[in-house]
Amino acid sequence: MTHLSKTHWRSARVVTRLSRHVTIEASDEGGFTVVVPALPGCVSEGETREEALQNIREAIELYLQPVEDDLPVTPDAELLQISL
User: Which domains does the chain have, with CATH numbers?
Assistant: First the structure.
């Protein structure tokens, strides 16, 4: 178990590989739309399949980044890393 104070959470680097299923389809307007069913609202687009897939990788990374509201709020709370 790892204990990190609120002041040290930013220096902790979480390196975890995980996979997500995505759906990709041609858009009526041209290009491709990619959706991550397991992450509500995580959608991206691209002119080509490759661009759309690269864009959704970035969107997933941003979606999963912790934000200030996700942090433990008490000094005794622990921030833990779990692998999936």
Answer: 19-66 (3.30.160.250)
